Amino acid sequence: MRHILTVLAALFLGSIAVAQNQPADLVLKDANIYTVDEHNTHAQAVAVKSDKILFVGSDAEAQKYVGASTRVIDLKGATVVPGLTDAHYHFMGVGARELTFDLEGTKSLDDLLAKVQERVKAVKPGEWIVGRGWIETFWKPPVFPTRSDLDKVSPNNPVILGRSDGHGAVANSAALKIAGIDRNTPNPFGGEISKDKNGEPNGMLLDHAQELVRRHVPREAAADPEKAALAADQRSVMLGWCEVQDPGGSWDEVVVYRKLYEAGKMRVRIYKAVYGPGPQADRLLREGAQIGAFEHHLTVRTIKVVSDGALGSRGAALLAPYSDKPDTSGFLTVQAEALRPMLIEALKRGIQVETHAIGDRANRFILDEYEKAFNAVPSAQRKITDPRWRDEHTQIVNPADLPRFAKLGVIPSMQPSHAIGDLFFAPKRLGMERLKGAYAWETLIKSGVVVAGGSDAPVERGEPMIEFYAAVARKPLPSRAAGASMEGWHPEEAMTREQALKAFTLWPAYAAFEEDLKGSITPGKLADFTVLSADIMQVPEPQILTTKNLMTIIGGQVVYEAK
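The chain above was modelled as a monomer; its predicted structure follows.
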């Protein structure tokens, strides 16, 4: 018996040796490779067979995997990191931004109105004008536009223009009239129709109030979904994203993704959530998760909840009133009575939940609701013992609640660029005291949780190097630094470069139950790599922002190469 086992063991080890020495399909050599494995190994070369990593090590060792048909790419010292993942990236929104009336970068109210006026000239009388991307933070003065502002340049064409955060929009009088909004229209739950001093709607619609107008926008005024998805795919791989985690949406979007993957037209991996509570979430609970379709390119296993609005538009739910508008504390956008049964059912069926929470009240609310669900469904009754539920944004947290993330096993999914943008106005919104628990990346990491890093594109640019810079520098972009006050920015909450790299590789993989598949350059894992023009782990902070993506490799295939 012992002899038979010895022979079997020898045959097994021999088969491993043959497998390890088989010719690779792709070899990257002369590279500066950060593996992000458990030993933080540094390497020169990597070999790939099919869509998996075969070998990681030195150039000399990699040579034995080079066969007659192996593609060898000499990277001439370029930096290679595990394929970058954006843990919070509204995929269809990014595509729509590429295709529709984009107001990002608008420098002032006059600039905004000039762009709308040009748009009016280009469309038919009465045709809707739908845009997005304006933000008033750097305008002088930093005030929201109003219906009367828009009426001056578009008295007849209905207009609705979304603020960059997606939680506010301004509409003109023509659009409000079509929607039947007047001084007597009540605020919907989870939304606000802003009023002027005379009690008349001023055109600003917050959160759920936007739907009162948007439901009247003709379908043809929005971006074609297939074209938007393809535009988002192109932008994503060009920037170096190998996976994006798409927080929210509908099954209609899943149908689009599946169609494009089946046709071989999409390359980036998508980890998709659908909105809940409601019909979209009910379907996921009923049908169950779809994991790893199209060779691990599409997973649908998560319900996205939105619990409040945004800080910039004062819709974020706070425990105390806004410092610069004491008559409001923001508002919750989901009711516990609707949420709780869904959370319990999700735990029983092994469905992940992620919740948008920005204000300290919203973060406490969702931690409370998660905890109640965890207590109601003991581990023995759960399909997945470790549910890895997520808190999306985790922006303003009362310091007393920060340790609860580790205690409950809740993953904060955070966007570094929000801090370096919001901290221009957050002190006014919150006062200095509440900034102690704001964008608290390092405190959360030290408490024992991983932070899944994202961008919230198209709210932000969605560029990896901006996010990496924001995480490690926690300073304004150089273009905005002149005269900027750094009071209240809490530089001690910046990440180390090692933490920041994990935040966009291994930690989002963990947040998606994919740490055994991706997130590090390790034999057996998916061959996803991002090749960069500079060593972001060593260069001075400003040079991070000038670093370019040279090549995006997904599943061993070069899907983007810089010209």
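The chain has three domains: 2-77, 86-90+223-559, 101-221.
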